[in-house]
């Protein structure tokens, strides 16, 4: 680490109040992804808008006056493991807690982050019921065991684990949510997110019928049968399931 490795960056946000709960955060979006989800809002950006810089250049270029944490996101940031390690190390040197957004395909990197005390919060995007993965993401490998391994590693180390699912009407149903909730039941928080039709990468998805808040609440209550802390996230609000 600290070798000045070149990072492929698709975006930097100096200040966000919504990406790390209870923290103002800076966000670095690493480019590239090993999935191709039609509903992705970032796909074009992460595959075409790429800058190359070192981790030091990333930090030197950010206005960190108000940020108090770092979120490493993507794309799928763990495709650039050394970049994630360098960013997390620099953040820790500044006293920043670190959150990683991931699709769960690189448990080995997560284990390295945990062992080196470089991570405080992980958010795993669990895309669908596990038989439905290839249809939703184009990802052909088995992923269930990788996600379970990440949850186990983090729980043992006291790293907060959020699992989250963007619910896609017509391509998913309540059986997806039931299967996911049963599988990731040991996570600290499960979030079911409303699909943002207007900003989907695949324009065919604009034809899908939007899911209502009531339908999301119903899915949240289903997940609550297996997981203590569940919330739904609409395009405008977050609602905990009581």
TrEMBL record:
The residues covered by the Radical SAM core domain are 18-228
Q: Name one GO molecular function term.
A: catalytic activity
Q: What SUPFAM superfamilies does UniProt report for this protein, alphabetically?
A: Radical SAM enzymes
Q: Which cofactor does it need?
A: [4Fe-4S] cluster
Keyword Transport applies: no
* Entry keyword set: 4Fe-4S, Iron, Iron-sulfur, Metal-binding, S-adenosyl-L-methionine
- Which Pfam families does this one have? Radical_SAM
Q: Which NCBIfam families match?
A: NrdG2
Q: State the protein's name.
A: Anaerobic ribonucleoside-triphosphate reductase activating protein
Give the organism's phylogenetic lineage. Archaea, Methanobacteriati, Methanobacteriota, Methanomada group, Methanococci
């Amino acid at each position: 680490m600290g070798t000045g490795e070149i990072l492929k960056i698709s975006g930097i946000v100096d200040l966000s109040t919504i990406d790390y709960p209870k923290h103002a955060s800076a966000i670095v979006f690493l480019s590239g992804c090993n999935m191709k989800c039609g509903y992705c809002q970032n796909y074009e950006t992460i595959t075409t808008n790429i800058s190359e810089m070192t981790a030091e250049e990333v930090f030197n270029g950010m206005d960190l006056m108000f940020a108090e944490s770092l979120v490493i996101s993507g794309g799928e940031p763990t495709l650039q493991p050394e970049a994630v390690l360098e960013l997390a190390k620099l953040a820790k040197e500044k006293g920043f807690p670190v959150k990683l957004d991931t699709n769960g395909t690189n448990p080995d990197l997560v284990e390295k982050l945990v062992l080196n005390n470089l991570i405080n919060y992980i958010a795993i995007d669990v895309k669908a019921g596990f038989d439905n993965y290839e249809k939703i993401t184009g990802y052909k490998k088995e992923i269930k065991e990788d996600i379970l391994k990440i949850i186990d590693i983090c729980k043992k180390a006291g790293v907060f684990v959020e699992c989250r699912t963007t619910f896609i009407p017509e391509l998913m149903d309540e059986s997806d949510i039931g299967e996911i909730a049963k599988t990731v039941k040991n996570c600290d928080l499960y979030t079911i997110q409303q699909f943002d039709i207007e900003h989907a990468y695949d324009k065919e998805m604009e034809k899908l019928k939007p899911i209502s808040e009531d339908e999301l609440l119903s899915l949240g209550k289903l997940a609550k049968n297996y997981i203590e802390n569940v919330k739904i996230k609409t395009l405008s609000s977050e609602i905990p399931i009581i």
